[in-house]
Amino acid sequence: MASLVHRQSIAGPRPGVEAARWWGRMARNPLETYVALARRYGDAVQVPLGLRRSFFLLSRPEHAEHVLVANQSNYVKAATYRPLRVFLGDGLLTSEGETWRRHRRLVQPVFAQRHIVAFAPRMVEIARAAVRRWPDGVVLDAADQMRRITLDVVGRALFGSELAGESAKTGRSLETLQRAVVVGTFLPGTTARRGLYARVPWLRDGMTHLDELVEKVVKGSGGELLDLLKDGGGLSDEELRDEVLTLLLAGHETTAASLAWTFMLLSQYPAARERLEREVDEVLADRDPEAEDVDRLPWTRAVLSEAMRLRPPAWTLERDALDDDDVAGVPVPAGSTVAVSPFQLHRNVDFWPNPEGFHPERFMGAPEHPRYAYLPFGGGRRICVGAGFAMLEATLLLATITRTHRLDLAPGVSVEARAEVTLRPAGPVPMRVTRR
Ligand code: HEM
User: Fold this and answer.
1) Is 345 part of any domain?
2) How are strands ordered across the β-sheet holding 139-141?
3) Which SUPFAM superfamilies match (predicted)?
4) Which residues are known binding-site members?
């Protein structure tokens, strides 16, 4: 039961004007506000949320482990996911309880490690075909290129659909969707959100496009995953639509953002890039990578892990507490919202010396950080179902592209991060591509 009065037991802004100011900041720039809150109040911050509830920002590995794993049955996806649910319905990312369990059981086997290696040749073929179209010396938007490739991978590998041509429009639709989700967080209820979304033309257009995309996939010849979703689990048409949209969106945007950030960071850290090129040249010589090569490319994987440390696409994981809890010394009343932020955890100086520097060495050899100091794919039973697929794909794509091309950020350009549902480049990422 939520308590009737606000109990302030942890450092944080006081109820009233002070808290309202922070919420105003949060609505404008959530990531910057999380960072500022932690800097001001420490690793555990309590922000009053209305009259009776609190929001907790928790930034230590033991907090993450408690909320996501040790006492995970006390937590459900937070109210902040509800605006996303208006779009994704009962897909894996946003559903709960028996519906979530049924969907997860159905989808999980497709993402088993021994299974996903079969997707490797297709991933490489798609990347190779994309870079073959890059004219030497031209400046391209790396974010858009990566989105094209990863949407094509998910479309063809998982659903047997040709979606590369849809990537620009899908990217725009996703942008509007993410903005709507952030604004929707501050609206009172699902009906209000649905009403708003239906009335705003740019949002309606974005949603219509995503609905058409799903229809195209569902009506297509199908891949293994689609067949499974259609025939294996007795999903209703609505559930099928929700799951296809969830997997299409969750399955490409995050990987695309990770790769765009990776190429940007490599362009800023030439020594790390040279080592990457050396590794790729030595292991692959003049052939494209195969799934078996992934283990022989430790620096390539370390580069990706370090990019996801600095720029975790899932930058915050939020849950609502069902019952009163003690999160590693933080008293959390029932009804509170708890944010465990990979962005914060990945910068904790106790585990990450020089946290703002790009140092893939951190991920060579046995890990020195505690397990829950690094959470790019979350943890516990809601851990990313596509983590293995994403790492395989990102490693193969990075190696395939690096074998033949180098990407340099256009001079004088700096690309900001935009944190909405995911942490992605705020605009185009102009990079010059040259043949090596
Ligand atoms: C670099 C790429 C990726 C990152 C960083 C990432 C990150 C995450 C994280 C952190 C979560 C947990 C969210 C939470 O606990 O609230 C998650 C869940 C999920 N991800 Fe990923 N993901 C990536 C790629 C993928 C891919 C390739 C797929 C599918 C093809 C996918 C599908 C999903 C789904 C369906 C969920 C919900 C799982 C559940 O709740 O059962 N993701 N992802």
Assistant:
1) no
2) 139-141, 430-435, 405-409
3) Cytochrome P450
4) 384
